[in-house]
Amino acid sequence: MADWDIRKLQILRTLRERGTVTATAEALHMTPSAVSQQLTNLSKQLGVELLRAHGRRVRLTDAARLVLHHAEAVFEQLERADAELAAHIRGEAGEVRVGAFSTAVPALVVPAVTALRASRPGIAVRVREAEAQEAYELLAAGEVDLALSLAAQAPSAVDPRFTRVPLLADPLDVALPGDHPLARAEGLRLADLAAEPWIFGGSGPWSDITRGACEAAGFRPHQGHAAAGWPAILAMVGAGMGVALVPRMAAVPRDGVVMRDLCADRPVRHVVAAVRKGAEEGAAVATVLTALRTAADGRR
């Protein structure tokens, strides 16, 4: 197989365009002897005669024209590669894989992706729903580039593998049955609901968050029912079976349920993004992080 040398092919192409060795040397900031030497070497590498003397000038042979005909496709592809690489460096192109917990997908990831489609159409975002533990396992394994989770579920801020980026303090609102005596009370506080049956998971982070918020308000919640999914929790609230804390990102309108924000003791959960240490400097990842921050700012 012939030894194709892109640099030498570019010299041959310039000679075809400029017509003389001297003009080619000036265009490429080379000496005429260097141009001649490079083209002689290319002729030997390809095993064909590329130039013929024509008076005081040189003329391309039919073999040289054939070589350049096929080389044009290579030059065109290299131009595309240069353009795409430049866009990648500027954060305008590339693929970013995001692992995110369920409520963060519609609340933060989808708005960020929608905005990027308009402003950075060259960036492809691939989303994978994953709860915190799985998301960080995927991140550590290199299967996602960015993980969204709750700060309470994230690895330590001093974990040397990851860089954590705060995104949002998501308020926790209380879900009440529509006919509850406090459904429209002014100045509602969490402590006002101390005697109510509460609905939350039997274990796990949401159980910890609910218990922690209630204990910070001065009481231990009585768990009337255990459920982990928001549709099940809100359905039970709507049926008058109890009350629940619901993150604002997860709240959806439901008949028979009144969502109330709380006053002075309103709890929040902190949403963070994490990347592998150093990856935040990658332009495409940084662009997606910026879009996520913007989506988070829109919820404040």
From TrEMBL:
Keywords: DNA-binding, Transcription, Transcription regulation. Residues 4-61 form the HTH lysR-type domain. InterPro entries: LysR_HTH_N, LysR_subst-bd, WH-like_DNA-bd_sf, WH_DNA-bd_sf. CDD domains: PBP2_LTTR_like_6 (cd08423). It comes from the Bacteria. Belongs to the LysR transcriptional regulatory family. This is LysR family transcriptional regulator. It comes from Streptomyces tendae.
